[in-house]
Amino acid sequence: MPATIRAKFLPFGARRPTFIRSLRVEQRGDNVEANLGWGQENDTPFTIPIAEESFRTYNFDPPPYSVETTKNQLKQLYRDMTTIRRMELAADQLYKERKIRGFCHLSTGQEAVAVGIEHAISKEDKLITAYRSHGFTYMRGGTIRSIIGELLGRRDGIAHGKGGSMHMYSKSFFGGNGIVGANVPLGAGIAFAQQYDETGNVTINLYGDGAANQGQVHESFNMAKLWNLPVMFGCENNKYGMGTSAERASAMTEYYKRGHYIPGLRVDGMDVLAVMAAVKHGRDFVKRGNGPLVYEYVTYRFAGHSMSDPGIAYRTREEMRKNRANDPLTYLKTRLVDWGIMTEDEAKAMEKEVKTTIKDEVEHAQQMPAPEASLDILFEDIYVPGSEPAQRRGRTVDETWY
Fold this sequence. Notes:
The protein is of the alpha/beta class. Helices cover 41% and strands 12% of the residues. Strands 2-9-10-6-5-4 form a six-stranded mixed beta sheet, sandwiched between helices. It has a two-stranded antiparallel ribbon with strand order 1-3. It has a two-stranded antiparallel sheet with strand order 7-8. It is globular, with a radius of gyration of 22 Å. It starts with a helix and ends with a strand. The N terminus is likely disordered. This is Pyruvate dehydrogenase E1 component subunit alpha. It comes from Penicillium chrysogenum. Its cofactor is thiamine diphosphate. One of its GO terms (molecular function) is pyruvate dehydrogenase (acetyl-transferring) activity.
């Protein structure tokens, strides 16, 4: 059997050797070198091929096996993923130094999902996700300083130090939500508001494989399809719900088929270009009034479920080693260097610049003041300004403040 035919049957998400990938591109009549347009300006659009094993469909046409981009955007994709990785590593260190307390859920290994989605949607589109939200917060406009400040519980954090790791918000970004699966009906409601207001925009509604069996997720599917809501449901399948593998928790792990009556798509969530191409395709479908979609982004978290989980008790070191070989940052950088988008030295310079920026932002975040210990601050942001009641109830009937 020819190598190019055998390559079609690789396990989903597996990396095809470079020489086979190049041969496949040539067989389609594409010439990567010509498409890249060597010598063109950084903002000149050109087409990049997407590997055929990147998508699996359910009652849905696949995205094009290519995506239009520019040299500047490709460099920005790598910068964004590198920034999120460095920010998460900084949070890891601060937690180990006991400066960040409580819950802290990192997304190391899953950067391509947040970055690929953001580069495929507009700022007017809405996004809501679960508690592994730092990368999404950054991509939706949160600053590194405000995110780290929030983790540290500081007044100038993105939620004034009251939300911590799981509750961060910015314009068009509705969190960061701590209750497993509970953000999915909220996202359906956001999509309903978009439909009602005739905004023409879509809602990206994300949850994890551990939440995929929740009843409220399927209730949201049903309502979204009944009303043809402009929503793209998306399961970030990082293979484990806390310490339980998807195979042990779910009778059927093809999460992109879980919508039954809703079309679905499984995406290689370790390839930022595949994510970007898939979301652009789905967004166009939803914006044409075709109703919801169910996406599955197959990814992998390199760390544990949270900082209290070493992540090695329920998975082997060999499994982790194999998945780290698919690091989305390394995979993109290798292609950018091979394609002549940037050199190894340019990539190292970018990485060094990002590392320096993160260090500086962390230092500034640590200088932020803590929230003032006063009742005004305690009861802040509960009511719309001007609608506050005359009295505030405490834990008991005796704890009432006027």
